[in-house]
Amino acid sequence: MQIKVENLTKVFNPGLPYETKAVDKVTFTVESGEFLAIIGHTGSGKTTLVQHIAGLLEPSEGRIVSVADDGTETVISQKGKESTLVRRKVGIVFQYPEYQLFEETVIKDVCFGPKNQGLSEEEQIERAKEALKLVNIDPDVKGEVSPFELSGGQKRRVAIAGVLAMRPEILILDEPTAGLDPKGHDDILEMIRRIRREVNMTIILVSHNMDDVAEYADRVLVMNRGALMFLGTPKEVYCEHETELREIGLDIPSCPSFLWMLKERGLNVDDNKLHFEETAQEIIRALKER
User: Fold this and answer.
1) 142: how many CB neighbours lie within 10 A of its CB?
2) Main-chain dihedrals φ then ψ at residue 131, nearest 5 degrees
3) Which residue from 259, 192, 169, 156 is spatially nearest to 37, judged by alpha carbons?
4) CA–CA separation, 159 vs 287, rounded Å?
5) In this predicted model, what pLDDT tens digit does every residue of 221-246 receive, in sequence order?
6) What is this structure's pTM?
7) Per DSSP, which regions of the chain are E strands?
8) Rounded to whole angstroms, how far apart are CA atoms 1 and 264?
9) How far is it, in rounded angstroms, from Cα 198 to Cα 192?
10) 254 and 211 in contact (C-beta within 8 Å)?
11) Count of beta carbons in the 10 Å neighbourhood of residue 178
């Protein structure tokens, strides 16, 4: 399923003294199966944008359109059976989703979404077990355990499983590693990469971690003051617009930032490298040529 964002504008409290334009005439397309990262400083409109894609907000202007494989278009924010069915195909995981766990067992918590979809108890449990396995939680070991007895990282994965159990075609993750220790952070991201590979799911990631974006995303969308500033591959965005990104308060991934520092100190390196291995090879090459 493709998502087209067309001239999207969202104004909160229109006509009032504290009117705020959170999203301003944003247009882009999310391709089926891609990993799109959305970055921007706090207040740039990232969360408001993804809430529109999930159908949680109605645009002030413009529209969000889903395009099925057969070319059928559906406006997500419209009322009606078709739009409701499309919205069910978009799952969203907000920051700290483990705070929304509430059932007495892990399996019951993950069953909550499928239950609301009207599935039978047997189908709910089947979906829940499938989703728990996707997030590396063994349902036979942890299924009957209280979710509140789990570690922070496990709680986060159970919460994500609750969304996956509804079998969305598009998964939106708003800062999915916020507050986790380094291992938990890496585990969540590798889990997301594996889920995408195994299920061929479209991923939209909102993140402040530029290294994560450089490592995982196919494309990067930069938001600034509610508007789309840049959209391209990680290399195009980070390496061609470094100055502009720094001017709006965004960091650059560690690798090009380090290479840029070496270049400033006289080492003849190509600073257009995003990954650790290629960065190491580039430094070795430059040192051999000295």
Assistant:
1) 19
2) -65, -40
3) 192
4) 47
5) 999 999 999 999 999 999 889 899 99
6) 0.91
7) 2-12, 20-30, 35-39, 61-67, 73-75, 90-93, 170-174, 202-206, 219-224, 227-232
8) 45
9) 10
10) yes
11) 15
3-class secondary-structure state, position 132: helix
What is the percent of the chain with per-residue pLDDT over 70, rounded to a whole number?
A: 100
The CA-based diameter of the chain, rounded to the nearest angstrom, is: 69
Q: How would you classify residue 249: left for phi > 0, otherwise alpha for psi between -120 and 50, otherwise beta? A: left
| Token duo for residue 230 | 């840049």
- Residue 2 pairs in a beta bridge with 67
- Cβ(271)–Cβ(283) below 8 Å: no
Work out the percent of the chain whose per-residue pLDDT is above 90.
68
C-alpha–C-alpha distance, residues 80 and 62, integer Å: 18
Residue range 112-156, pLDDT digits in tens: 999 999 999 999 999 999 999 999 999 999 999 999 999 888 999
Residue with token string 């380090």: 258
